[in-house]
Amino acid sequence: MEFAFASYDEFLEEYKIYRLDECRKCKGRCELVENDITCIIENRSLHFNTLLVLRCKKCGAIYLPEYSKQMINYAYKTAVKKNQIIGVFHSKEYKKKFDYCKDTDFDYDYKDYYNIPGLRYDDEHSVEGFLTPVYFEKGALVYFLAVPEYEVQIFSDSYGYFAHKDSSGMYQYDWNVPFGFNTNGKLVMWLGDISYMDDKTRAILKGFNVSSDHLLIDSEFYQAQMKCIFSEPITEYKILLNKKTFIANINEKYSIDISHLTDECQQQEKKVKRPVVYSETEVTEVINAYDKILIEGFDVSKMKELYEVMYSSNERDKSYTSWKSIKLIEAILNKLAISIHNMDIASVMSPLYVLHDYRNLLDHLLSIDKISEKKEHIINTLGVQNFDDQKTIYNEEIKRLNILFNYLAILSR
Ligand SMILES: [Zn+2]
Question: What top-level branch of life does the organism fall under (predicted)?
């Protein structure tokens, strides 16, 4: 790729323009990528074997980001000083380190901080480098998901938070930082946020640290963090988002579409909202909508197909062909969670059985004995004293559904 400027002044004109993450030509999103760049200024030809540029993902247009222009400017001045017409510049091994996490030597690229639009124009933090992206293998999240003192919550396809619970019980968290996934499946967190973590967590994270691939802009994480276009949805809605993410992940990984009755699910989603007075009718309506979406909203035959892909013929349960949604989800989760040794599958799966009990309660032909039996089962499962305490039942059920679908969304990645 070649950039030609008739004069140094013309280059300075370009230097003044701050290139944004949005393509000026087609409004597509640009990502930072390494490119072989020749920059001609007047009669001097400056060649960079790897220079970071902003490339539009839609139309391919290439723009020079701020720090790369600074490098070109420096190279031009050097060429003038040395009276060179042709200059060749190789990327140096120099790795600038910011004043964050000095004790843990995280691998990151300081050039990302200076080149990715917006990151260095951060008014909130006085020490330079806070919003430097640090990249990790996604396995880090799976690791922390399995340790009870941490909380990992994903609330969209690729954006969530990672927190350490406060052991003193004074606060909810010792620290709580956002994370995202880039389009390459890498986990990303800000260097400054990582500095809030305790030494032990940082040491564990270090083991998952990988070099920057510079991809960040086309992620919900960056878009939300830079533009505040996204706020954390209420738990009720998070569950629905995570169900969709789970289905999308499975489809991408196994080419099996396990969604079912999509239109019906959309209708039911309108009924999902946080109850106001927590009457039995109000709670039952929301719970029943969840039953339609989270149990009937899965295609049983497609899930059996997935089960057969995940389990070899000698691993399969003898009676799996007669299984319905819940058993199949349980088996799928079991397989996905293979690296998590201490997961209490029965407890994680329990909210789906509660949905099932609620569904039976709505069956008007049920005898009085059966009704009290179902109610008893619901309160025992959720650890609630009394069926009349609908608010506690509801909150516990939502909390557990959130845990389950959070697992499914993260582990299926
Ligand atoms: Zn474009």
Answer: Bacteria
Residue 158 C-alpha to ligand 1 middle, in angstroms? 23
In the chain, the percentage of residues whose pLDDT exceeds 90 is 69
Paired residues of 210 in beta bridges:
135
Give the domain 2-89 fold. Answer: Ubiquitin-like (UB roll) (3.10.20)
Q: What is the pLDDT of residues 242-252, one digit of tens each?
A: 999 999 999 99
> Do 401 and 241 meet the contact criterion of CB atoms below 8 Å apart?
no
What's the gap in Å between 167 CA and the centre of ligand 1?
A: 49
In angstroms, rounded to a whole number, what is the distance separating the alpha carbons of residues 274 and 260?
Answer: 25
- Distance in Å, CA 28 to ligand 1 centroid: 5
Question: What's the half-sphere exposure (Cβ side, CA atoms, 13 Å) at 282?
Answer: 13
Indicate the DSSP class of residue 88: E
In single-letter form, the type of residue at position 393 comes to: I
CA nearest to 210, candidates 131, 135, 111, 101: 135
Q: Is 19 helix (H, G, I), strand (E, B) or coil?
A: coil
Q: Ligand 1 mean position to 1 CA, how many Å?
A: 16
